[in-house]
Design a protein that fits this description.
KR_dom, seven-stranded parallel beta sheet, Rossmann fold, globular, binds nicotinamide-adenine-dinucleotide
Length: about 260
């Protein structure tokens, strides 16, 4: 696979589990990595790790639910690193409850982070990519979008929406040389998954059930995801757009 020398990569939620692993992988492959996160300390920690390994990275505080914050972080990235070649929409959040036990205020927050946030990012970054007739967008959805997941109804609706949105943007912007693809993690050992286990009430039983039902016999680790994400972001994927790939140990097998 190519390196990402001279490529500017933006990753939202870059301070988190999957976002951190992906940021570090891009950093090792020579990219200029803009680590966007609501949590500036988490983003700075990841950026500092990349720099300590000899890579180029900068942390930017960005709340993807707030368009002004998105515009400010994108402008700061353009100034620091130049035009954005790759956008990875990875930031996400969940609440784990049966749908009838959730409140509309929680739906609003889930939709703002998991769907509207990605729309803001696309809206801010796409015009520059279209003008340069080049770009790679990788959206991180979830297997919940493909097969549903108890306790995650609104989150699953957002991720399903993100899949449909990605396919539409892939069609609208193919003529600009921009590809848009989706990676769907399965259960992956991060802070978000720790909350899921808590919400389930009996974490040990849940882990046992997942381990039994995942053909490859374990839940995912953050480092299981960057390979698929970097592939979609690479020149090797130039003829691949509007596709959805599960990285979930075979938990879901989609045709
Ligand atoms: N871990 C899993 O089991 C799993 C499964 C399926 C999909 N996913 C998806 O993978 C992606 C990464 O999740 P993770 O498991 O690494 O979670 P994580 O909690 O480790 O990381 C999420 C990051 O997003 C950031 N974030 C939250 N709200 C934000 C906002 N408004 N603006 C900017 N940043 C914000 C958080 O600060 C955090 O650093 C998410 O989109 C998640 O939905 C995770």
């Amino acid at each position: 696979m190519q390196t990402f020398n001279e490529k500017t990569v933006v990753i939202t939620g870059g301070g988190g589990g999957i976002g951190g692993a992906t940021s570090r992988r891009f950093g090792r492959q020579g990219a200029r990595v803009a680590v966007f996160d609501l949590n500036p300390e988490a983003a700075e920690k990841v950026a500092a790790q990349i720099r300590a390994e000899g890579g180029q990275a900068e942390a930017f505080r960005c709340d993807i639910t707030d368009r002004a914050s998105v515009d400010a972080a994108v402008a700061a990235t353009l100034e620091r690193f130049g035009p954005i070649d790759v956008l990875v929409n990875n930031a996400g959040w969940d609440v784990f409850k049966p749908f009838t036990k959730t409140e509309p205020a929680q739906w609003d927050k889930l939709i703002a982070i998991n769907l509207t946030g990605a729309l803001h990012m696309h809206h801010a970054v796409l015009p520059g990519m279209a003008a340069r007739k080049a770009g790679r967008i990788v959206n991180i959805a979830s297997d919940a979008a493909r097969v549903g997941s108890s306790g995650e109804a609104v989150y699953a609706a957002c991720k399903g929406g993100l899949v449909a949105f990605s396919k539409t943007i892939a069609r609208e912007h193919a003529r600009h040389g921009i590809t848009v693809n989706v990676v769907c993690p399965g259960p992956t050992d991060t802070a978000l998954f720790a909350d899921y286990k808590e919400g389930a009430g009996n974490p040990e039983k849940l882990m046992e059930a997942f381990t039994r039902s995942i053909p490859l016999g374990r839940i995912g680790q953050p480092d299981d995801l960057p390979g698929a994400i970097l592939f979609f972001a690479s020149d090797d994927a130039a003829y691949v757009t509007g596709q959805v790939l599960s990285v979930s140990g075979g938990l879901t097998m989609n045709g």
